[in-house]
Amino acid sequence: MRTTTTGRLPAARASWHRKASRPVLVWFVLLLVLALVHRWVPESRWLLVHMFVLGMVTNSILIWSQHFAEALLKNRLGEEQRNIQVLRIRLLNLGIAATVAGVLTGIWALTLVGAVVIGAMVTWHAVSLMQQLRTALPSRFGSTIKYYIAAALLLPVGAAFGAVLAYGLDERVHARFLLAHQALNVLGFVGLTVIGTLVTLWPTMLRTRMVDGLARAGRWGLAAMLAGTLLTTVGALAGWAVPAALGVLVYLDGIVITGFYFVKCALQKRPNDYSTFSVAAGLFWLTGSLLGLFLLIVTGPADPERLHLLTVPVVAGFAAQVLLGAMSFLMPTVMGGGPVAVRNALQETNRFAMLRIAVINFGLLIFVFSEASWVRVITSALVLAAYVSFLPLMVRAVRVSVAARKATVRDQDGSNGLRRPVRVTIEPPPAPQRHLALAAAGVVIVLAGAGAGIMLDPAAVGLNLAQRAGTAEVEATGEETRVKVSARDMQFHPASVDVPAGNTLVIELSNDDPTTVHDLALETGERSERLRPGETAILDAGLITAGTDGWCTVVGHRSMGMVFEVNVIGGPSDDPAAAAGANYGSDSNHGGHGGSGGTGGPLNLSEDPGPGFVAREAALQPAPAGTVHRFTFEIKQEQRAIAPGVLQEAWTYNGQVNGPTLRGRVGDTFEITLVNNGSIGHSIDFHAGAVSPDEVMRSIPPGESLVYRFRAERSGIWLYHCATAPVSAHIASGMFGAVIIDPPNLPPADREYLLVQSEAYLEDGSGAVDVRAIAAGQPDAVIWNGHANQYMFQPLQAETGERVRVWVLAAGPSRGTSFHIVGDQFDTVFKEGAYLLRKDNPEQGGAQSLDLAPAQGGYVELQFDQPGNYMFLNHSLADAERGAQGMIAVTEAP
Q: Which segments show compositional bias classed as Low complexity (predicted)?
C-alpha cells in the first residue's frame, strides 16, 4: 500500500441530484418487491419491464443527460432552472404512476393521460437541451447532446404507441405496433442515450484519454443508429420485414462504429472495476440482442410471443447492467468531497466486482437458454441478488464519502485557517488474479444453483436416474441394429423393431410432432431426453438380450398409444419379465386404482385440514373498470394439496389448481400471455372467445410463450382449460379456470361467490394423474375450487335478508353437477347465457338445483330468511360424498 495527502475541503454545495434521483431509488425498491411477489400480481411481466424502463431508466436519463450536457457544454444552470428540472421530473413520475395505474385497472383513459404526460415531460427536456446547446460555445462533444435530443424526441412517439397498444388492437396490428414501440423506446430512447453518453464517459471510467477518432465516430454512430431506428419503426408499422430487419443492421452498424473505438480505449487501460466490467457486459448483451432481433424479424413472424424472448437479454442483460454500472461510477463522483472521498466511495461500489458480474451474466445465460423451470427460478434469484447488492454497497459508499469529508473538516487548523494534511491509506487496484478468483466463484455459485434446480426436477432436463436392470446371459454378437423412430400423432413410427439377440440397439428418435414434447423410455432403464418439436436424439439401448417395452413418459401419452416394442430374434423369451426394469412416468403400470390418493396417503374427506389451512377465496370481485384486461398465465408443475394430507402432482396456471378467475363485460378484450415453465407442452383454450384455434390454442413447448387475445361477445360463465392431448389428463391435473362475462344490466347482489367443480384421479402413492382411472370414470375426489370439502370447515358467509348470487361451473374433465343448497330455494337461475327463472316471476316458481353438464355454467340467486348453517352440494350424492360439498353460515342481520 501507499499513502498520499490531501488538504482539499469537500464542496459544501448540495447537489440537485439528490432530489432528482429519489424517484429512481423508489422505483428500484418497488421493482424488487414486485420481483418477489410477481406471481400473484396481474400484468406482472409488463410491470417488471416498465417499472424498470419507465421508472428507473427514464428518470436516470433525464437526470444524467442534463448533468453531462452541463459538463460538456460548460454551461452551469442557475438555481431557478434547477427547480424547474426537479418539477419536470416530478411531473414525469406522476405520468408514469398514471400509466401503471391505468394498465392495472384497465382504465385506458388513465393510461392515455399518463402517456401524454410522459411524452410532454421528455419533449420539454429535449427542448431544454436544444436551448442549452444553442446558447453554449462550440464544443468538441456537442454530438453527445445531439444523441440526447434525438433520443428524447423519439420517446413521445413510442409512448403514444404504448397507449395505442393498451387500447387494444387485433393480433396482426398489435404485433406491428409492439415492434415499433420497442424500436423507438429501447433502440431509440435508451440505446441512443447510452451510446452518446459512453462516447465521453467510457474513457473517463477507464481513467484514460479519449482515443483519436472517437468523437468523429460518435457523430457517424448517431446518424446510423437514428436511421436504423426509424427504418425499423417504419418497417414494423407497415409490416415490411425486409426494411425492419435492414434497420436493425444499420443500427448495429452504428454500434460497431463507436464500439471499435470503445475497444481501443479499453486496450489503452483495461477495465478493472465493477462499473467498467458491467458497462462492457451490457454492450455485449445489446449486440447479441440486436442479432437476435434481426433473426426474429427475417425468420418471422415478429409476433409478441417471439419478441418477448428478447425481454430478459435487453432489460436485464443490457439496460440494467449499463445503468447500475454507470451509477456505480457516477454517484461517488458526483457526491464529491475531494479525491479521497471519491476514491473511498468507489472502493465500496467495487466490492466483489467480478463475483457480481459473473453471477449476473452467467446466470442470465443459463436462464435464457434453459427450459427447466426450477433452474430458471434459482438462477433468476441469484441474478436478482447480485443486482440488489447495488443498494447496500451504494449506502456504504455514501457513508464512507461523508466520513472522509468530515475527517477533512475536523483536521482543519482553526487558528490560522490553514488545513493540516490528512494521511489517507489507498488500497491498490485489485490484481487480475483476484478478479479471476471472484469470477470463478460466481460461476460456481450459478452452477450450484442450476444443479439444485436439476435435482428438484431432473425430468425437465431429460436426466435418467434409474438403474439399468440385469439382463439374461446372451453372447454379444458385436453387431449393431440402428433404427429411426419418429414420434408424431400420439404414436411411434415404427411402433416396434426386431433385433437379433446379442446385438446392440441404437434408436435415432425424432420428434416430428409440431406442438408438444415427447420422449422414449425403455423398461431396461434407458431413456431419451424430452424432445421439443423438431428435435432429435440418439438413444443407445445397449445389448439386447430379451424383449423390451417402451413408451412416452409424458402424462397420458402412453394411454393414447405411444408405446414401442423391441422384439428379440433368436434369443430368450421376449417376456418383459426377463428384463425387469424401472417404471417410468405417470402412465406406467401399478397395482390398480385403489383410491389411496397422492403422496400424502389415503384420502380422508372428513378430516379437518387444520388451523394453518386457508380455504381458497370464493368471494367474487366486480368486473374491473376498463375494456382491455391483460394477464400473464405462467404454467408451473407443483405439488398442491387437494384434501387433508393429500398432495397432487399438479400442472397449474399461476400455481393454482383451478387457475385465476377472469371477469369482464360484453365487448371487453382480454389479452393473456401464456408462459410455459413446465417440463412438457401445454396450451390454453378460452371458451369465452370465438377465435380460430390454429394459433392461439396450439401447444407450446417448455420455455416458450404465446399471446391469446379474444373479445367477449356473449355473457355467461365460461370454462378455460389446457387443450393439449390428452386433454382429460391436463384438466384433471389442475389446468382449468373460469371467465365470467356479466350479462348486460346484471342486477347488484350483496354477496357473490364462485364455485368451480372438478375431479381428481390420483395414481396410488405418487400423486400424479391416473389416466386409466379417468377412462374408467373413477375419481378419487370431486371438489370445489381445488380442495375437497374446504368450505365444510371454513364456510362461506351471509346474513339474513341479503341477496346472494352463486356462480357455478362444471370444469370436469368428465362429470357434471346438480348444484343444490339444503334448506332454501333459488328464485333466479341463469344457465348457459339465458335466464331459466327470474325473481318475482308470474308463476311464483322456484328452483331446487342448477344442473350442469361438463363445461357448462351459470348462476343462482337466493335470499336466506333465517340464520343457520346451510349445506351446498352436488346432488349427485356419490360425488358430494367424494368432496363436492360445503357450508354457508348465515347470521342474523344487525
A: 579-589
Fold observed for domain 480-579 = Immunoglobulin-like (2.60.40)
Run of H or E residues at 704: none
Q: Where are the domains of the chain?
A: 13-331, 480-579, 628-891
- Tell me the pLDDT tens digit for each residue of 643-677: 888 888 889 999 889 999 999 999 999 999 999 88
Q: List all residues 6 or more positions away from 544 whose beta carbon is below 8 Å from its beta carbon.
A: 481, 499, 500, 501, 502, 503, 504, 505, 566, 568, 571
Q: Please report, to the nearest 10 degrees, the dihedral formed by the alpha carbons of residues 690, 696, 699, 702 taken in order.
A: -140
Residue appearing with cell numbers 459538463? 71
Cα diameter, the chain:
109
The answer regarding whether domain 628-891 maps to CATH 2.30.42.10 reads: no
- At a CB cut-off of 8 Å and minimum separation 6, what does 854 contact? 810, 811, 812, 813, 814, 815, 816
DSSP 478-512: S-EEEEEEEEETTEEESSEEEEETT-EEEEEEEE-
User: In whole angstroms, how large is the CA radius of gyration of the chain?
Assistant: 32
Find cell 444524467 and name the residue. 64
Distances, alpha carbon 764 to alpha carbons 116, 501, 563, 586, in Å: 59, 36, 22, 10
DSSP 395-431: HHHHHHHHHHHHHHHHTB-TTTS-BPPEEEEEPPPPP
Instruction: Report phi then psi at 399, rounded to 5.
Output: -65, -45
* Cell numbers representing residue 456 in the block: 428438484
Cis before 747 (ω within 30): no
Do domains 480-579 and 628-891 share one topology? The answer is yes
Length of the chain, please? 894
Give the pLDDT confidence of 842-890 residue by residue, as tens digits: 999 999 999 999 999 999 999 999 999 999 999 998 899 889 999 999 9
- Per DSSP, 644 falls in state T
* Tens digit of each residue's pLDDT (9 = 90 or more) over 563-580: 899 988 875 444 433 333
